[in-house]
Specification:
The structure holds two protein chains of two kinds. By secondary structure, chain A is an alpha/beta fold. Chain A has twelve helices and eight strands. Chain B has two domains: 261 residues, Aldehyde Dehydrogenase, Chain A, domain 1, CATH 3.40.605; 183 residues, Aldehyde Dehydrogenase, Chain A, domain 2. The longest helix of chain B has 22 residues. Classes of the chains: A alpha/beta, B alpha/beta.
Chain lengths: 308, 490
């Protein structure tokens, strides 16, 4: 199989050839990551890296321009009391809030991610999904977080799901495409792995676990299976695909374990915001609290960190 | 698969700072006597030897070298306890003492784990998460049997044998002591235990636990020393039952020595386990299983999965993934919580492993080792795999007892079975497939005492363990383990 042929192909791969996943083994491997002890300088380095990988997110029906502007302010000024902190990677909002975020982030190197394609359920026509995507891109989003049609996927209509991703990718233009598998609705790790392979072959720049609207959202187990799928795709094609666990990662300790898992599965090349993101709203403050603890030796009250 | 442009990079970048387990809480005496008749006593001839930390080559303590006279004293103390307090004790009371040992061991788990890693070189992650909890679990399990032997052997009357002479190896010092002592005591025997020369310290701590548990004097006696001490235990005429775990060579010598005597015996010897990966297996989890099978405890495991058989159609993929996984294994200070592979147990063992690395290459095998740095002081061996070897290579045939894996491929089910069984050993095996029916089919045709399916190196006190062929005689653990310590009558 020539590499170039694979790189340019957008054909649906034979999903029956995707390696099986054993859940017991996955749990054991995850437990092993969690037994790593990250201390001192390596912890500070990890915490700063985590901040730089955050997609600061608000995806509520009650979102207003004012709320989004607050979020953007937080994205730029994470905790000015502590010099030398990175800014987050992106803010993540609904399509109709993209223009607000675009204005608020003017002149800052922070990406604007917008969910699209009838997020979170994806229960609409392809036309509506494409319009949704184009609207977000035109308003200034440079990253699109789409959802796959889980119903179609579970019904075995892989070509339908595949073609939809290909079409959305095209509608994205230059914007990066993150494909949300909504693993909480896929039910098994085998399906998570197959959906990952499908999405990558359809052109996903990132694969993402969850919308945050379904429980369970991101877990280390599904993230590991997706990282392994990314690794296999990279072995096969030489193309790097990014990973974004989203929802349910609210503590610095858990986020550090994700970094351990990332490093030991994909290696150093993925340890940047370009290739790994955390979709989270409350993670940043816990990380900031831990960083202050590392520098001052004591925990500060949560009220010393801005909640936006 | 692997090309320069799609190789994963694990060198450099973010790495983990040292996270050493504290040693402030442990108490190791400068010198240990022999534990005989409930007291620590000096050896008759006053000889002691050093036990060292294989990671630093520093001396940890001096330990008594027992000779035949000391062993005789220990056996007599054991006999006295057998015909005295222990022998007359109600089974229910006996059980309480064993429970007490288990509980104290749990309370002192951190200390046991730290000392096990210091003395033996195994990573603290393993001694903390595997060795010590499992050792306590064995005492708990067999404590429960003490007053229920009539249910273990329905319709028969189970009587103790008398004095058990037990000789254990250096790879799981505390755990092997528990495997030996717990069923012996539960069945009403008394014991003389001989720990390995390079790893006597946790046995000495166990002696302290036994003393603190207030067991009647002489029920458990622990005599330290080298091979001669072990020989004195095995051949002592006052010993009714011999339990040995160690090399096949020593096992042969013991079996010869026991010929013509009335002693019962169990021997748990070497192994060269086949780990078989079919193309339909969950490959990433199977790769993890290979790692757990051969690199657990530096490969110092009699049931280690040291022969890997991979179905040809997935062999390249499995080997590439294995190599990438090996790059993330951290070799170094056993006391560091992040260490995956600790120190080789002794300089002698390191030499043996290194000689096999030479042999493997001379025979034409392709050797691959991970690139991780290793400390200058101490005994170390990077995780190693051999490809391009076959059934006629010595690294495939002989037990290396180190982190060295010999990889072969197979095409058909029957080829895998025939190669897996083509060994003088038969202790354990592993099979990896997503197909349940295949698991049942292959486990019936593999001649090994334990066969793990889609996992490896899993132990539980309720599960019997032991070998076919040159891997040993008898079973330890579970209900079967009781049988080795009782005489059945009516």
């Amino acid at each position: 199989m020539s590499l170039t042929a694979v790189k340019t192909s957008t054909a649906l791969p034979d999903l029956s050839r995707v390696s099986a996943v054993d859940e017991v083994g996955v749990n054991e491997r995850v437990a092993r990551f969690q037994s790593r002890s990250i201390k001192k300088a390596s912890k500070v380095e990890a915490l700063k890296l985590i901040l730089s990988m955050i997609d600061l997110t608000t995806l509520e029906g009650q979102d207003t321009p004012g709320k989004v502007r607050q979020l953007c302010q937080k994205a730029i000024h994470l905790h000015d009391a502590m010099p030398g902190l990175p800014h987050v990677a992106a803010v993540c909002v609904y399509p109709n809030m993209v223009s607000v975020a675009n204005e608020a982030l003017e002149g800052h190197d922070i990406n604007i991610a917008s969910v699209a394609t009838a997020f979170p359920s994806g229960m609409s026509s392809l036309q509506v999904k494409l319009d949704d995507t184009r609207m977000a891109v035109e308003a200034g989003a440079n990253e699109i977080d789409m959802v796959i049609s889980r119903g179609a996927f579970l019904a075995g209509k892989y070509s339908y799901v595949f073609d939809e991703i290909v079409a959305v990718k095209e509608a994205c233009g230059d914007a990066h495409l993150k494909v949300i598998l909504e693993t909480g609705e896929l039910g098994t790790l085998d399906r998570v792995r197959r959906a990952s392979v499908l999405a990558m072959h359809a052109g996903a720049d990132f694969i993402k676990t969850s919308t945050g609207k379904i429980q369970p959202a991101a877990t280390m187990q599904v993230t590991l299976v997706m990282l392994q799928a990314i690794r296999d795709y990279y072995y096969e094609t030489g193309r790097m695909v990014g990973m974004k666990p989203a929802g349910g990662i609210s503590t610095a300790k858990l986020a550090v374990h994700y970094l351990v898992m990332l490093r030991e599965t994909l290696g150093n090349a993925w340890m940047t915001p370009e290739w790994f993101r955390f979709g989270a709203s409350s993670l940043a403050n816990d990380v900031l609290m831990q960083l202050m603890k590392q520098s001052t030796g004591v925990y500060q009250s949560a009220d010393y960190f801005s909640k936006d | 698969m692997a090309t320069p442009e799609n190789k994963l990079a694990f060198e450099g970048g973010w790495s983990y700072d040292p996270a050493p387990e504290s040693t402030d809480h442990i108490r190791v005496k400068k010198r240990y006597g022999l534990f005989i008749g409930g007291d620590f006593v000096a050896p008759e001839k006053g000889r002691y030897f050093d036990t060292i930390n294989p990671a630093s080559e520093e001396k940890l303590a001096r330990v008594a070298a027992a000779d035949a006279a000391d062993v005789d004293k220990a056996v007599k103390a054991a006999r006295k306890a057998y015909s005295g307090a222990w022998g007359r004790m109600k089974a229910k009371e006996r059980g309480k003492y064993i429970y007490r040992i288990a509980r104290i061991m749990q309370e002192r788990a951190r200390e046991f784990a730290a000392i096990e890693s210091l003395d033996g070189g195994k990573p603290i992650r393993e001694s903390r998460d595997v060795d010590v909890p499992l050792a306590a679990a064995h005492f708990f399990y067999y404590a429960g049997w003490a007053d229920k032997l009539e249910y273990a052997f329905p319709g028969r009357r189970a009587r103790p044998l008398g004095v058990a002479g037990q000789v254990i190896p250096w790879n799981f010092p505390l755990l092997m002591a528990a495997w030996k002592l717990a069923p012996a005591l539960a069945c009403g025997n008394t014991a003389v235990l001989k720990p390995a020369e390079t790893t006597p310290l946790t046995a000495m701590k166990l002696a302290e636990v036994i003393a603190d548990a207030d067991l009647p004097p002489g029920v458990v006696n622990i005599v330290t020393g080298a091979g001669e001490t072990g020989a004195a235990v095995v051949t002592h005429p006052g010993v009714d039952k011999v339990a040995f775990t160690g090399s096949t060579n020593v096992g042969r010598i013991i079996q010869k020595a026991l010929a013509g005597t009335n002693k019962k015996y169990t021997l748990e010897l070497g192994g060269k386990a086949a780990n078989i990966i079919f193309a339909d297996a969950a490959i990433d989890q199977a790769v993890e299983g290979i790692v757990n099978g051969i690199f657990f405890n530096q490969g110092h495991v009699c049931c280690a999965g040291s022969r890997l058989f991979v179905q040809e159609s997935v062999a390249d993929q499995v080997i590439q993934k294995l190599k990438d996984r090996m790059e993330t294994l951290i070799v170094g200070d056993p006391m560091d919580k992040n260490t995956d592979i600790g120190a080789i147990n002794s300089s002698m063992q390191l030499e043996k492993i290194q000689s096999y690395l030479e042999i493997g290459q001379q025979e034409g095998g392709t050797m691959y080792q991970s690139s991780c740095p290793v400390p200058e002081q101490g005994y170390w061996c990077r995780p190693t795999i051999f490809t391009g070897v076959s059934q006629s290579n010595r690294v495939v045939q002989e037990e290396i007892f180190g982190p060295v894996l010999a990889i072969q491929t197979f095409r058909t089910f029957s080829e895998a079975v025939s190669k897996a069984n083509n060994t003088p050993y038969g202790l354990s095996g592993g099979v990896w497939t997503d197909k349940g029916a295949k698991i049942f089919k292959i486990t019936q045709s593999m001649r090994a005492g334990v066969v793990w399916a889609n996992t490896f190196n899993k132990f539980d006190p309720t599960s019997p363990f032991g070998g076919y062929k040159e891997s040993g005689v008898g079973r330890e653990g579970g209900l079967h383990g009781l049988g080795a310590y009782v005489r059945l009558g009516t």
